[in-house]
Design a protein that fits this description.
By secondary structure, the protein is of the alpha+beta class. It is 50% helix and 18% strand. The longest helix has 27 residues.
Length: 315
């Protein structure tokens, strides 16, 4: 189901504590199974504070504006070009600050639905016929970090929005789209696992902790992409020395921090050129470039067009 408002938080927490045993969703919507249901909350909010909710696997993103999502004591700012994942039973706090309205599009994958889909995606093909309808539902953890929203991810979100606006709610289409999205997220998780395995050959738990620290630097970059970012900021965010941070970042992501930041700025510039009329000079400064000329040169090097020409072609 797709909701146009946040459910009352006292009602929600009570339902979670009871495991949705009455099979009722918000507004007395009848559910087929117990457990947290699959639901998208698409709403505009001027301000909200929703603390310590034990949800299912959840995606936090915004169509417009920013929100703050806190998991395990770490707060991330989720913007228009990122998303954040929390896991089943992992308490999260969602906040939209006063004076900074946001249009959220938060996706909560139903407990049984998500784990059934993930198990099916992870089951070898030669085992499917042997199992038949039997499913071994198990816990699958995603890594808590901000992720870039690429074109594929955005196209999936756009299709969900468009289908609901044009045709109303169809459970078949809804579950089909969420299944596709979970498959995408699983691919992203595999990329994370590959990055973890690129780190020095120490114990797996140590590699995971090193990646967790590096991901804090990624979160910092996304939150401050329009500011001046130096090596001291990034190494401090990751609790690593400058030398170790530089070496491990390049191993994990295949890019230097400087290259990663420039790529992100060019990616954001493409969206801003397509969707806004902000002058190129103002756009360059808002993305942290020293001057419009350096921004235009880099944009041309990456895309073969200057920003003004790119804007004309995307109108």
């Amino acid at each position: 189901m797709i909701l146009q408002e946040f459910p009352d938080i006292s009602w929600l927490k009570n339902q979670i504590d009871q495991g949705f045993s009455n099979k009722l969703g918000w507004g007395n919507f009848h559910l087929d199974t117990e457990g947290f249901p699959s639901v998208i909350i698409h709403t505009r909010s001027e301000e909200c504070f929703r603390p310590d909710i034990k949800g299912p696997i959840s995606l936090f993103l915004n169509i417009r504006g920013n929100s703050l999502c806190t998991v395990d004591g770490v707060m991330r700012q989720v913007g228009e070009d990122t998303y954040f994942i929390s896991n089943r039973g992992q308490p999260y706090t969602l906040q939209i600050e006063r004076g900074e309205p946001a249009e959220t599009f938060n996706i909560h994958f139903g407990e049984y639905f998500a784990e059934s889909v993930l198990n099916a995606l992870l089951t070898p093909a030669d085992s499917i016929l042997e199992r038949g309808r039997q499913q071994d539902v198990s816990f699958f953890p995603f890594f808590n970090q901000l992720h870039r929203r690429d074109d594929h991810f955005n196209s999936v979100i756009d299709r969900i929005l468009q289908a609901h606006q044009e045709n109303g709610f169809s459970r078949l289409l809804f579950e089909q789209q969420l299944t596709h999205l979970l498959g995408y997220l699983l691919g992203q998780q595999r990329d994370v696992s590959e990055a973890v395995n690129k780190l020095p050959p120490v114990r797996q738990s140590t590699r995971v902790e090193l990646y967790r620290r590096l991901s804090r630097a990624i979160d910092y970059i996304h939150a401050n992409v329009g500011e001046k970012i130096d090596l001291q900021d990034l190494s401090a965010a990751s609790f690593l020395s400058k030398y170790h941070f530089l070496r491990l970042f390049k191993l994990a992501y295949g890019l230097s921090p400087y290259q990663y930041i420039q790529d992100l700025r060019i990616e954001k510039a493409r969206g801003m050129l397509s969707k806004t009329t902000l002058p190129v000079a103002d756009l360059a400064y808002s993305l942290g470039f020293d001057n419009p000329q350096s921004f235009s040169r880099l944009f041309f090097q990456r895309l073969g067009l200057y920003p003004t020409h790119y804007r004309e072609q995307t109108k």
